[in-house]
Amino acid sequence: MGMILLEAFGAMVILIAIVWWTMFSGRSKGELKNRPQNPAEADKTAEK
After folding, report:
1. Which residues contact 36 (CB under 8 A, 6 or more apart)?
2. Rounded-to-integer distance, Cα 19 and Cα 11, Å
3. pLDDT tens digits for 1-48?
4. Which of 9, 10, 33, 47 qualifies as a FRET site for 17, CA 20 to 30 Å off?
């Protein structure tokens, strides 16, 4: 019983480590801001 709990705990630690790594190993300054593809749309958003 103890070995099963130990194995489950180890698997959970590995899962949390993988999720943590994928969440926080991206760009150093975070995600880029969404910029409009079309220059006409950029003018509309600048007016607001």
Report:
1. 42, 45
2. 12
3. 999 999 999 999 999 999 998 887 776 666 667 766 776 665 565 555
4. 33
